[in-house]
Amino acid sequence: MGPLPRTLELFYDVLSPYSWLSFEVLCRYQNIWNINLRLQPSLIAGIMKDSGNKPPALLPRKAQYLASDINLLRQHLQVPIQLPKDLFSVLLEKGSLSAMRFLTAVNLEHPEMLEKVSRELWMRIWSRAAKKAGMSAEQARGLLEKISTPTVKNKLKETTEAACKYGAFGLPVTVAHMDGQTHMLFGSDRMELLAYLLGEKWMGPVPPAVNARL
Amino acid sequence: MGPLPRTLELFYDVLSPYSWLSFEVLCRYQNIWNINLRLQPSLIAGIMKDSGNKPPALLPRKAQYLASDINLLRQHLQVPIQLPKDLFSVLLEKGSLSAMRFLTAVNLEHPEMLEKVSRELWMRIWSRDEDISEPQSILTAAKKAGMSAEQARGLLEKISTPTVKNKLKETTEAACKYGAFGLPVTVAHMDGQTHMLFGSDRMELLAYLLGEKWMGPVPPAVNARL
């Protein structure tokens, strides 16, 4: 048997467009690299508050840049991401508390569904191409009931605090555990560096599909 | 004769560590890709002021992250970059006005020296933790880059002239017009389009836009394009 897979924690919030990009690239590589990808639903609003940071979109030129950057990355990363018509309303007013509590509940009860449901939520906010994630209406209802329980609320709080302890001031945050070391990488643009640290091959953001590792 | 090279403008300030990383990667690719690299000495302090942005190092967790990020990138990009002992004094007190005016003068009078002199200034501040604000510091860097003492002194005398001051101002304003809120900013001109990319971590995306091959931040050395 080969070396043990290295754990990669991905702290993300569906309110964060760059989190979606990290997510898709890491999902592509989870069956190529010797890694164990642990998705960690977190609350970006909580991270901003705890770190004293502010959403970049509040600075006009950053908001402008975000729009063009996302457009270019859509093509390069082949993720169908588009800015919503009312970006500010989405980012600053509506927020993502219910969505991230929902994903926390999914992670607690049906972790095998977490990837698909996360993707579906991103599709709804950040794309036009939303479709159903395959959860039964009953399952979804049951989970919706759970999102205000102390268990779920606390779990989301703990995960968000864990990201803060790793030094997060925003999302996405990827934490690589390897050879007794821990590396925290911020942003969706540290994937090639991550490959370098893991001693794995970087084949760009859209690697050729390979057979799942046995 | 093949297609015309695409112009890439690199707006940078030696005060900016990520500018150095962009600079080195683009210098490596300038003889591999079909590009014409135009170095544009700019003032990051002016860009911050104009855009309403603040230096990231002012937020404690960003300063912390910067330290670990730079350490990892040193290895990955093979650039000998190290944080100075007193990061805040370097970034927030001493600044880079004289250094960037000097590079502006170099660009006006000896543009063929701009790459080497820029590198020597970065090596001082971001590799050996040496000063770049005093006249003697700048002269030493220029001489290390291969300039004669006379040439260097001559350029140093010009840094307070309206010509040099205005040129630095114009270049900084140009970056702002492209939408800069920080540095480095790479502007690619191609097929009648203009793409502004921020940061040292958009190089693979740049390759994609140019239709060029990305071979990582340390591409195998190739013969200079004829």
UniProtKB/TrEMBL annotation, chain A:
Keywords: Transferase. InterPro entries: DSBA-like_thioredoxin_dom, GST_Kappa/NadH, GSTK, HCCAis_GSTk, Thioredoxin-like_sf. GO terms for cellular component: mitochondrion; peroxisome. The keyword Oxidoreductase does not apply. Transmembrane segments: none annotated. One of its GO terms (molecular function) is glutathione transferase activity. Residues 7-198 form the DSBA-like thioredoxin domain. Its EC number is 2.5.1.18. The keyword Chloroplast does not apply. Gene3D superfamilies: Glutaredoxin (3.40.30.10). It comes from the Eukaryota. GO terms for biological process: glutathione metabolic process. It catalyses: RX + glutathione = an S-substituted glutathione + a halide anion + H(+). Belongs to the GST superfamily. Kappa family. This is Glutathione S-transferase kappa. It comes from Carlito syrichta (Philippine tarsier). The lineage of its organism: Eukaryota, Metazoa, Chordata, Craniata, Vertebrata.
From TrEMBL, chain B:
The gene is GSTK1. InterPro entries: DSBA-like_thioredoxin_dom, GST_Kappa/NadH, GSTK, HCCAis_GSTk, Thioredoxin-like_sf. Keywords: Transferase. The keyword Ribosomal protein does not apply. It comes from the Eukaryota. It catalyses: RX + glutathione = an S-substituted glutathione + a halide anion + H(+). One of its GO terms (biological process) is epithelial cell differentiation. One of its GO terms (cellular component) is peroxisome. Residues 7-210 form the DSBA-like thioredoxin domain. Its EC number is 2.5.1.18. GO terms for molecular function: glutathione peroxidase activity; glutathione transferase activity. This is Glutathione S-transferase kappa. Belongs to the GST superfamily. Kappa family. It comes from Carlito syrichta (Philippine tarsier). It holds the Pfam family DSBA. The active site is at residue 16.
